[in-house]
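For the sake of transparency, this paper describes our internal protein records without simplification. Because each token names a local backbone shape, the row as a whole describes the fold. One such record is reproduced below, unchanged from the form in which we store it.
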Amino acid sequence: MGNNQLSVGIFIDGGYYAKINEGLQRLFSKQLDIRALFDYMRERIAKKSESRLEDIHIVEAHYFRGRYRASDAQDKNLLYEERLFEDSLIENDVIFHYKHLRELEKRGGITVIEKGVDVWFALETYELSMIRKFDFVILVTGDADHEMLAKKLNALKTKVILLNWRLDSQSSTSKLLKEEVGWHLDLGNESMADKSLFERICVNSK
């Protein structure tokens, strides 16, 4: 990219993103609009870096999540909902990375195991940041395990933005992670400061 161009990589922890949407659905019958969210982040980066909006480019976006096998998803009536969400990812050029979920019977109940996704998220983010040399990396997560990822990205001299939305304890963000990043952006606080933002980046749940 030219001297005035700034590249952005976005990496989304799908489990955390789902918790935000579940909270928005429960409280407001809303869900995040990926395109509007990306546009808003470009605007914020342009303002923060004192750059022109047209010089801010989201060059890659990645989404990581555990998901059920097709037969299990069909049994749970999740196939259509998952496909609908994937359509929104595809329409916004988001690359999705999935590992199969496992269910284990434990203490008379069923425990869902999502194994390896967090490690994959961290490795892919770090590797791509080294190769692509992003000017900014946006982490959509709240997981304390990604504190070391933020440290490593800082060592690459990549500007790290942590994006979260605390709606309840399920979507809370690690204090250690917040302290490690250069810029922590809480969409809950942002939408309180700018009342039009909520309507802009959220749409009615389907």
DSSP finds nine helices and ten strands in the chain. The chain has a mean pLDDT of 89. The CA atoms of residues 31 and 166 lie 14 Å apart.
